[in-house]
Amino acid sequence: MNIKSLLLGSAAALIAVSGARAADAVTVAEPEPAEYVKICDVYGAGYFYIPGTETCLRIGGYVRYDIGLGDVGSFDGSKAFDVRSGKEQSNWSKNARFTLKTWTGQETELGTLKTYTETRFNFGNKNDYAITTSDAFNRAHNKGVSLNFAWIQLGGLRVGKDESAFDTFIGYAGNVIQDTLVPYGNFDTNVVQYYFDAGNGFSAVVSLEEGSGKETIDSYVPHVVGGVKYTQGWGDIVGVVAYDSNYEEWAGKIRGDFNVTSELSLFAMFGYGSDKHLLDDAGNFVDVHGRGFYKQWGGHWAFWAGGTYKFNEKTAFNLQVSGDQDKNYGVAANVAYTVVPGLTVTAEVDYDHFGHFDDGTPFGNWTNADKKNSVGGLLRFQRDF
């Protein structure tokens, strides 16, 4: 065998093996192109397009931890019983909360289609004690889940679970934690609302509401809230009026917010409502508070005032004072400090004065109660995301 024959034989063998391997080769499919999440900046920061849709979604919330102490019976303190002696005593109030929020937005031929949900999960002992047995304790426990918001809005029409427009449209009572030392209205309700923006700073709302708890509507007639607002660079003026269909009573609030300087902002709110002194079929007085779903304060009138002063970008001082016709008064003051973006620590001191009570006689003879002054405080850690 010469060298030429050897080379030709080797080439033939290589061609045969290559052909065999080619016949056994596996074809790998081309990878699908990656579909990356796209940022949606139409509705603000944090939104992104849900893949394959024109809907923008934002997911957020907060984690919060509250530590409270104060007089038993105040908004801040907690009641406990000594595990050995059973003696009633004051205790820390603690509450940890995780809140999950979602927002969606989409443009349609009928306007912007939006949704908002907020769900809260709580673990703690605050305001959850019982005294029905001798071994009752204010034990820390999982306090359940609450659906605080779940509404749909198309253009100006909103339906679903919200807080009453009697509070949301006019604004809450300052940047303090305990803003209801003198209450200014009820909150949770299902709604059918319409918001109207007239331009030039004028807006309005009409809200049909179901109420909640014992103040849920008792017929087909809803509670009704209406409000108007005028907003400019200096602040705004807002008024709301509400009709309580259960008691056929009215309540209203008017409020002014003022941007005095870039550091200082002030607000003042005044409420007035008709009384309801109810008798049952036997002529017995059945409403000992004189309050409905909207007029939660005592007597006809009440006030709330306060403001915020920003020392710098991280530190702010907040104050609220409040009172009503029945000589219930409250003062709340705090300092809020942003440790790093997204983490705020707030230290608050609260004073609560209880004035009058209704003795339960027909037509509500308002008499002086033993005046009680309660002092308490809260330390709050909150991480927003």
Query: Helix- and strand-based class?
Result: mainly beta
User: How are the strands ordered across the major sheet?
Assistant: 2-5-6-7-8-9-10-11-12-13-14-15-16-17-18-19
Assembly type of the chains comes to single chain
Order of helices and strands: HEEEEEEEEHEEEEEEEEEEE
Proportion of residues in extended strands: over 45%
Large-scale geometry:
globular
Report low-confidence residues grouped into runs of 5 or more: 128-136, 358-371
Q: How many strand elements?
A: 19
Percentage of residues assigned to helices: under 10%
Care to describe what's here?
This protein is mostly beta strands. The chain is built from 2 helices and 19 strands. The longest helix is centred in the N-terminal third of the chain and has 22 residues. It is globular, with a radius of gyration of 31 Å. It starts with a helix and ends with a strand. This is Porin.
Condensed summary:
The protein is 7% helix and 53% strand.
Which labels suit this protein?
single chain, 385 residues, mainly beta, 16-stranded antiparallel beta barrel, two-stranded antiparallel sheet, 7% helix, 53% strand, globular, ion transport, transmembrane, porin, Porin_alphabac, transmembrane beta strand
